[in-house]
Write a structure and sequence with these properties.
Layout: E1 4-9, H1 14-24, E2 29-39, E3 44-45, H2 52-62, E4 66-71, H3 77-92, E5 98-100, H4 107-118, E6 123-125, H5 133-142, E7 146-153, H6 168-173, E8 187-193, E9 203-212, E10 236-244
Parallel strand pairs: 1-2, 1-5, 2-4, 5-6
Antiparallel strand pairs: 2-3, 7-8, 7-10, 9-10
Length: 245
């Protein structure tokens, strides 16, 4: 059987980690690269705020080569898609045909990804698609994964959730309107241990900072970081800085 050569869209968080774990169990696929978007200005993982050094340590521990997409601060959709297209073209030239994601239930996001991939003759793969998030988080913990909350959206959670390890107590403390996997963007994580890693990622917890994104200057500007919903800019985010050891 000819293996399907794939890249994995790696966010550094728990959904990525579990989806990667599952696709690595699939004998049809060979994961050749991890692909991650990084904020060009701050050299941190887009939306997660994790330092690029820790991202590199993850890839090294996982044992899969890392490809980084340098994305400008608050890019327009056009800029984001241009960077993505160039990255995919580069990997396509290396024989990659499939692109793997850790998405769970956002239909419009999956459709967007598949439409863009199809134009480049790539096929999208979604290993944890439509699995109930309450099941996913329990499986994640049972497998021995460990992950820390590095970013929370204040619309859903307060500062106290930032910097916490996800365990049963964390799940129990979540408000009812918050998805346990943060699939609606309620929170983001950094996974530092588990069955996909040769060794845990070592870090110290640094300061917790608050950041609010400014509304785009042009009323119709569509940014890749957020939605067309202008109310998204009425809320800020709490970030927990992780410092490599």
């Amino acid at each position: 059987m000819t293996l399907k050569k794939a890249l994995f869209n790696w966010s550094s968080g728990k959904d990525s980690a579990l989806a990667l774990y599952k696709i690595l169990q699939n004998p049809e696929f060979e994961i050749n690269y991890l692909l991650t978007s990084v904020n060009q200005q701050f050299q941190r993982i887009s939306m997660h705020g994790v330092r690029v050094e820790l991202l590199g340590q993850q890839a090294q521990s996982i044992g899969i080569p890392l490809e980084i997409m340098q994305i400008p601060e608050m890019p327009t959709m056009e800029v984001y898609e241009d960077v993505m297209q160039k990255s995919l073209e580069k990997l396509k030239n290396k024989g990659i045909t499939h692109s793997v994601f850790g998405d769970i239930f956002l239909e419009d996001l999956r459709q967007y990804r598949e439409d863009k991939l199809a134009k480049m003759d790539f096929e999208g793969v979604f290993p944890i698609w439509k699995i109930p998030t309450k099941e996913l988080i329990q499986e994640f913990i049972a497998l021995g994964f460990k992950t820390i909350v590095v970013c929370v959206n204040e619309r859903y959670l307060d500062k106290s959730f930032t910097g916490r390890i996800i365990d049963q107590q964390f799940i129990d403390d979540l408000p009812e309107n918050v998805d346990v996997c943060g699939e609606n963007g309620e929170f983001h994580t950094f996974t530092f241990d588990g069955p996909i890693f040769k060794k845990p990622i070592d870090f110290e917890i640094g300061e917790i900072v608050y950041r609010k994104y400014e509304k785009p200057k042009q009323a119709s500007s569509n940014t890749a970081c957020d939605t067309n919903d202008t109310s998204a800019y009425d809320y800020g985010f709490w970030y927990c800085d992780l410092i490599p050891k």
